[in-house]
């Protein structure tokens, strides 16, 4: 795949396949554990920052004065730039080299994390989070390119994909727990400060141990495709998040929906005519690529939307501290970590079709189970839903991602990983946007009725209708419990709409697994055309 041209630390010798013997070439088959630790540490930070901020949202809301819409943007500004640039980052790694990209992006990610921590307003934080997402977008697919270079054997590479998936799953699921511990002790800024020491140490190790590899592709970047993709996904996300406050029938929102449709259609037409497209449409002729994109989009969209709402529910409605809320997610954290590795292994033994189907059904079952939650239910009422969510993420995502990567040509590993990760992250963007919008709309339309008969000023009702509960603590003691009970019940009703939508999306993922993953080892039939 790539010719090794040198590596520090005595790793410059290359095998006949063009890989460094000391760092993963077939001659010795060994990779420095310290190198893998640094590589996966960088990846851990990227995934951690997609969920660690969720548990900090109430604290951030109190400090910066954000409503539910603003909190959606705190999460989605990162996910949006993250998802929109993944395809370009994967293609860029195929062209200019993985080491330069990965280490440079990790430096950028560390610096933008500091920027987030220093933000003194919602607007500043949104810009910093967007910049952080740009650098994170590079790290995800490029890490897969590095794994492909270091592990030429498909079985060994498959195991490393499982480890990578476990790291990602652990970071995603552990985010609320880590965030809770940090926020309660040091404030919301600490969820960003924690990236600084880890990032610095990881960069130092990668500079010394990661070998250089000369990329084979020297073609130009597909800037037109990139701009159209960013415009399409960005406009659609903006319309979904802002539609409730601006009015769904307003010219601004309708214009955004129309612009998104035009941009995305133009993107497909543009890519079909390019000699070196950012997204080779021929990849999707392989059933494992199509299934991987659909399943990653739906399952992780449903999961991210659910986690976003669960963290708000546990703290704003149930009154738990950040640490208490984070501890409630340990069941999901452990399950994701275990099943991410187990899912890839089972996919190789019994087939990706069955494994992915079980994962999608488990996720749907967990989301359907969340519909049973009522106001201030204890942990005994929802631990098993968290277990099913973790099982679904581990069994549905990693196996189909591994199968997707085996289905694309090895020299397009960066682009292939970009396809898998982009579908996952775009799904996450829409999951948070749709879930938050459903809850915001339900609050806005039902707050006046739910709070009728209580001696509340109109501005207090309007504030609650926007999803800002920060003023509830200042209410008179004689009405505060009743207000919290009614608002909490109304909020839960809105989350039920979101959970039901997510369960339906996972039903689509289950069908995709059954219909598209028909051959147990379809990926062995040859790579998808690029």
Write a structural description.
The N terminus is likely disordered. This protein has 2 domains: about 450 residues, Growth Hormone, Chain: A, CATH 1.20.1250.20; about 50 residues. The radius of gyration is 23 Å and the shape is globular. It has 18 helices and 2 strands. With about 525 residues, it is mainly α. Strands 1-2 form a two-stranded antiparallel ribbon.
Structural class: mainly alpha
Largest sheet, in brief, is: 2 strands, antiparallel
Q: How many angstroms does the end-to-end distance come to?
A: 15 Å
Mean pLDDT: 82
Strand order of the largest sheet: 1-2
What string gives the helices and strands in order?
Answer: EHHHHHHHHEHHHHHHHHHH
Q: How many runs of DSSP E, i.e. beta strands?
A: 2
Which residue ranges are poorly predicted, with pLDDT under 50 across at least 5 consecutive positions? 1-28, 520-526
Question: Using only CA atoms, what is the Rg?
Answer: 23 Å
CATH architecture of the largest domain: Up-down Bundle
CATH class of the largest domain: Mainly Alpha
Number of helices: 18
Task: Briefly say what this structure is.
Helices cover 73% and strands 1% of the residues. The chain has helices at 33-51, 57-64, 68-96, 98-118, 122-150, 154-186, 190-193, 195-209, 223-246, 251-273, 287-317, 322-327, 330-350, 352-369, 383-407, 413-450, 458-465, 480-516, and strands at residues 3-6, 212-214.
């Amino acid at each position: 795949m790539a010719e090794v041209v040198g590596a520090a630390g005595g790793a410059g010798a290359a095998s006949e396949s063009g890989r460094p013997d000391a760092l993963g070439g077939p001659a010795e088959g060994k990779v420095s554990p310290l190198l893998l630790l640094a590589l996966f540490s960088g990846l851990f930070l990227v995934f951690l920052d997609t969920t660690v901020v969720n548990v900090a949202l109430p604290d951030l809301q109190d400090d910066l004065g954000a409503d539910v819409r603003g909190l959606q943007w705190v999460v989605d500004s990162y996910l949006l730039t993250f998802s929109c640039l993944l395809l370009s980052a994967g293609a860029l790694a195929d062209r200019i080299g993985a080491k330069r990209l990965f280490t440079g992006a990790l430096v950028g990610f560390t610096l933008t994390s500091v920027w987030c921590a220093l933000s003194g307003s919602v607007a500043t934080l949104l810009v910093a989070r967007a910049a952080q997402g740009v650098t994170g977008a590079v790290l995800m697919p490029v890490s897969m390119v590095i794994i492909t270079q270091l592990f030429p054997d498909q079985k060994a590479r498959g195991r490393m994909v499982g480890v990578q998936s476990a790291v990602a799953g652990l970071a995603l699921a552990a985010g609320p727990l880590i965030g809770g511990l940090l926020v309660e002790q040091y404030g919301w800024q600490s969820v960003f400060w924690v990236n600084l020491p880890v990032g610095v140490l990881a960069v130092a190790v990668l500079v010394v141990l990661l070998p250089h590899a000369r990329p084979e592709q020297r073609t130009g970047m597909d800037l037109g495709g990139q701009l159209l993709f960013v415009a399409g996904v960005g406009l659609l996300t903006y319309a979904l998040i802002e539609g409730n406050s601006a009015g769904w029938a307003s010219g601004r929102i309708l214009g955004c929906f129309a612009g998104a449709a035009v941009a995305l259609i133009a993107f497909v037409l543009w890519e079909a005519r390019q000699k070196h497209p950012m997204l080779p449409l021929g990849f999707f002729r392989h059933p494992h690529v199509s299934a991987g994109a659909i399943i990653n989009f739906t399952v992780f969209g449903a999961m991210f939307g659910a986690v976003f709402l669960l963290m708000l529910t546990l703290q704003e409605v149930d009154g738990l501290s950040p640490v208490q809320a984070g501890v409630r997610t340990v069941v999901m954290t452990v399950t994701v970590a275990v099943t991410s590795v187990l899912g890839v292994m089972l996919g190789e033994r019994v087939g990706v079709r069955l494994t992915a189907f079980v994962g999608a059904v488990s996720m749907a079952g967990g989301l359907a189970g969340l519909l049973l939650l009522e106001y201030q239910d204890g942990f005994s009422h929802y631990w098993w839903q968290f277990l099913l969510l973790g099982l679904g993420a581990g069994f549905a995502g990693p196996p189909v991602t591994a199968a997707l990567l085996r289905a694309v040509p090895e020299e397009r590993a960066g682009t292939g990983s970009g396809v898998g990760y982009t579908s996952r992250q775009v799904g996450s963007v829409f999951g948070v946007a749709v879930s938050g919008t459903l809850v915001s709309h339900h609050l806005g339309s039902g707050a006046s009725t739910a709070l009728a008969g209580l001696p509340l000023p109109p501005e207090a009702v309007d504030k609650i209708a926007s999803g800002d509960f920060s003023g509830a603590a200042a209410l008179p003691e004689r009405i505060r419990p009743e207000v919290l009970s009614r608002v909490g019940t109304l909020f839960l009703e809105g989350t039920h709409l979101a959970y039901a939508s997510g369960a339906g999306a996972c039903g689509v993922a289950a069908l995709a697994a059954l219909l598209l993953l028909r051959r147990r080892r379809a990926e062995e039939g040859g790579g998808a055309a690029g």
